[in-house]
């Protein structure tokens, strides 16, 4: 068993988890470590750190107020599957689309979802700035999640066009969250969104600041957003 302290760490984080869900995290962790030998997926490879900094951290974004049963979720810039795979393990009714610009990472996630028996997965390969202009994805998702993808003013422009009116964009952020929020005020206004709440989170054994920002989509995002690749980063709203 790779995650030998898994049960204790989830309990410390007050995450109620079944034996089956623990087994699925074990499967995912083993696949992640194995694949990481040949593909750049994560710098975190020690078992307790994987549990805390990837699995438990990902789950901090789950709040049932924002995730209705069976909700459609887009995990933008999912990488090695964070927060998407932990959400799929704990809430397998959610319909999660794993979205990344790197196909290899999506291939890995396809194998993971098969191994853990998660049947509600979809995979989207492309750039956030481009796929949002396709009719089938625009304002389609109940929830969009993103962890460690871009600064909030840029991320808001990439993510909010995918969120349906009344839906939520959830950004998992670190210590710079206040500064990012301040800098994103204009972007949120332009894109038709408002900050609903900011929840401070702590992780077992760590003192790092973690903030989960819930942003409500209140009206349509103007069609010109997101702008072409690299524009938002160079010239954020
Ligand atoms: C630093 S990783 C974070 C991965 C994961 N969310 C996590 O928290 O571990 C950022 C991911 O976002 C993807 N990404 C970056 N820019 C993107 C874009 N414009 N559209 C889609 N994916 C993007 C990258 O390929 C990478 O997998």
Automatic annotation (TrEMBL):
Catalytic activity, EC: 2.1.1.-
Name listed for the protein in its UniProt record: Ribosomal RNA small subunit methyltransferase G
Molecular function GO labels: rRNA (guanine-N7-)-methyltransferase activity
Matches recorded under Pfam families: GidB
Lineage of source species: Bacteria, Bacillati, Bacillota, Negativicutes, Veillonellales
Subcellular location: Cytoplasm
SUPFAM superfamilies according to UniProt: S-adenosyl-L-methionine-dependent methyltransferases
Keyword Transferase applies: yes
PANTHER family named among the record's database cross-references: S-ADENOSYL-L-METHIONINE-DEPENDENT METHYLTRANSFERASES SUPERFAMILY PROTEIN
Residues reported to bind S-adenosyl-L-methionine: 77, 82, 128-129, 147
Family: Belongs to the methyltransferase superfamily. RNA methyltransferase RsmG family.
Function: Specifically methylates the N7 position of a guanine in 16S rRNA.
Entry-linked InterPro entries: rRNA_ssu_MeTfrase_G, SAM-dependent_MTases_sf
Keyword ATP-binding belongs to the record: no
Species name: Anaeroglobus geminatus F0357
Gene Ontology annotations for the cellular component aspect, listed alphabetically: cytosol
